[in-house]
Amino acid sequence: MKLAYEKGEAEALLAEIDFAFAEFMDKDWSAWARPDQLPPSLPPEGPDWSVWLVLGGRGAGKTRAGAEWVRGMALGLPPFSDRPVGRIALVGETLADVREVMIEGVSGLLAVHPRGERPKWQASRRRLEWPNGAVAQTFSAEDPESLRGPQFEAAWLDELGKWKNGEATFDQLQFGLRLGSRPRQTVTTTPRSTALLKRLAGDPRTVTTRARTWANARNLAPGFLDGVLARYGGTRLARQELDGEFVNERADALWRRDGIEGLRVAEADVPQLVRIVVAVDPPAGSGRRSDACGIVAAGIDAARNVFILADATVEHARPHVWAERATALWREFEADALVIETNQGGEMAEAVLREADPGVPVTPVRAVRGKAVRAEPVALLYEQGRIRHAGRFEALEDEMCDFGPTGDGWGLSNGKSPDRLDALVWAVTALALGPKAGARIRRL
Fold this sequence. Notes:
The protein is α/β, with parallel strands linked by helices. The protein has 16 helices and 17 strands. The protein folds into 2 domains: 213 residues, Rossmann fold, CATH 3.40.50.300; 177 residues, Nucleotidyltransferase, domain 5 (2-Layer Sandwich). Helix 12 packs across helix 13 and helix 14 packs across helix 16.
């Protein structure tokens, strides 16, 4: 087989290739796409997913994946669909984003179609119409109410993590996805730690694919990756915008994730501890409508360094459930005290613990200051390197790195109570900031 050509031979060979065939090959997405850019398959007996969530860094090829999915749905191309889908919704942060990125962008819908099957963009009606009659209407997250009335078989949602009215827009769209036997939607976005995105990612009807910016390096400008790595490498921004990771951290948060990482130790490296406590932040109510019950174990060594040992927080539990969990942790670590915040329930909270284990030494504490005032001295101990995490506590660390100023004080960005963090604050306060720091040696 001849692999090398004399000068001019390659050009002559290319000239002989039929232009239509060359364009067809160029637009054959299944031949060029990475696995993360292709949708999951559907079994013939029924739908196994309703949302395809495409998470990726900047320039990772998310827009191309979304546009190709819509093209495949509208034209009935495998592996996207076994028949053309007639009604499609295109939803972006603004109408300008829908037009300039999703439709007219370099990886948008007009660009991914060969000329013979390209849809016609009707700007005045804000819709695309394919030669086979399929129609895609455009919508903005700025106007959730515009989704009332229309109905669809499929939808493409772009940069959902940026939508200001994400919850309302997403909800209205779900009511409109009621046509056909398999209504489906694709979400292409750089991940942000919004409640909606995290809920979608955890839904069993969602299939998630991920891609880092590096996966698409051949289609990016030379030097781009080297430049952004030199400036942002190792930062939380790089993890979110280049690696496509969920990073639960706010710029104004009291804790930083890199600071916590620098203070992490293995469980085997925890030294002898002179005092261990289990702290409980009980919920205001009980059952499904209650907050979580924060339960954290911590200890202090002879050098006055604190070690976070366990997070046994329980979600939406009745009092006897969280009491049993807390007393079990107290027994596991042979703790010196079980510290419980009594603002919620007062004597009832103590009684529940004593009922679970009559021998537990309960130490009641009462909050007379706001959460930020209680948390700031603990954050200062972290900055001084005096608190270490013996292992990884992802949910607890998420709350720590999302705890900052809110409209009515301090709290989490989702408006929920920082129950795990509250328990940690009580534990550290009892060990390092309060009047009692026992002298009895404990070994894990």
